[in-house]
Design brief:
Helix content: 40-55%
CATH architecture of the largest domain: 3-Layer(aba) Sandwich
Largest sheet: 5 strands, parallel
Number of helices: 14
Structural class: alpha/beta
CATH topology of the largest domain: Rossmann fold
Radius of gyration: 25 Å
Shape: elongated
Strand content: 5-15%
CATH class of the largest domain: Alpha Beta
CATH superfamily of the largest domain: P-loop containing nucleotide triphosphate hydrolases
Oligomer: single chain
Strand order of the largest sheet: 2-5-8-1-9
Number of strands: 9
Distance between the termini: 59 Å
Length: about 300
């Protein structure tokens, strides 16, 4: 069987933009530049921004475009080494010890050597990301790093410095080739500067109206042009209202999909009220829009679109 050929890394910023575009991810030149440099320099890419702006999607798109496995470490409070890096299969180890004793084996060193071997090692995302062959390194997504505590962040700093993990019973496992690392954070807390210095940084912002309209065209092709324009204009207006949680691009896509499924051709107050839970996720925000402010926004949107022709 012939060896699988993986797509090569982009050789320019324009190729990076095209590569992302082929996966229906619209990228500005600044984002494409930092992605290109991260790939060329083999440096982790630190993406910061509001929830729902497409940070996680970048890792998924890169994995698909480059035909690499995607390994995701979803961060949360209390995340530890056993869940993130590795742990031993204790039940299997205990069974092996019992079987050895039943077979009359009393050599403790031999038993210890057997049970602390690769056979009983459970590889968690960090170790999986380091266990690659040359030229086939995975995309390693460390998602929402700001949700972990500083102790784990400090441990991760060591991993990203040398791309290796030391297991006392086995020794040091070092990546044959560094994985493509994407770190995301919603900025619920500040991540330490020491980790950021090891990465290339980019702030992922909400798309402008023209970009968001193109996203709807690609992601929800059955949505009419008129409705798409109203949806995007409405969402763009909502983001100026200082809501508790502004709708992200994912919510815009969901709303467009929902309205298309309902065979809507245009926005009206009743439709917005009935489907607003697709777009907004906090009751105070929903009550504010349903309480009359939403109708004002809709009137402004229609006036602006009419004036624009």
């Amino acid at each position: 069987m012939a060896e699988q050929v993986h797509p090569s890394l982009p050789s320019s910023i324009d190729e990076t933009i095209d590569m992302l575009g082929d996966q229906n991810y619209l990228s500005g030149r600044a984002l494409a530049t930092v992605i290109f440099l991260a790939l060329k320099m083999k440096r982790p890419l630190f993406l910061e921004g509001e929830a729902g702006v497409g940070k996680t999607e970048i890792a998924k798109v890169l994995a698909k475009a480059l035909d690499r496995p995607l390994i995701r470490l979803q961060c949360y409070e209390g995340l530890d080494i056993a869940s993130a890096v590795y742990e031993w299969n204790y039940p299997a180890q205990m069974l092996e010890i019992r079987l050895a004793e039943a077979s009359g084996i009393r050599d403790r060193d031999r038993i210890e050597s057997d049970i602390f071997s690769e056979r009983y090692l459970i590889r968690r995302p960090v170790l999986q990301a380091l266990s690659s062959t040359q030229g086939k390194s995975p995309v390693f997504l460390i998602d929402e790093l700001d949700r972990t505590d500083e102790a784990f962040e400090a441990y991760l700093l060591e991993v990203l410095s040398d791309f290796q993990v030391t297991i006392p019973e086995l020794g040091t496992i070092k990546a044959a080739e560094p994985p493509i690392v994407i770190i995301t954070t919603n900025r619920t807390r500040e991540v330490h500067d020491a980790l950021k210095r090891r990465c290339l940084y980019h702030w992922v912002d909400y798309p402008d109206a023209s970009q968001e309209l193109e996203i709807i065209r690609r992601k929800v092709p059955n949505c009419s042009e008129a409705l798409s324009a109203q949806i995007v204009a409405y969402v763009q207006k909502l983001r100026t209202l200082d809501l508790f949680k502004n709708p992200g691009v994912a919510e815009t896509i969901d709303w467009a999909t929902a309205l298309t499924e309902l065979d809507r051709l245009a926005l009206d107050p009743e439709t917005i009220s009935d489907t607003i839970g697709t777009l907004l996720k906090y009751q105070d925000d929903i009550a504010r829009i349903q309480g009359g402010e939403g109708s004002k926004v809709l009137a402004d949107v229609k006036n602006e679109l009419q004036a624009a022709g």
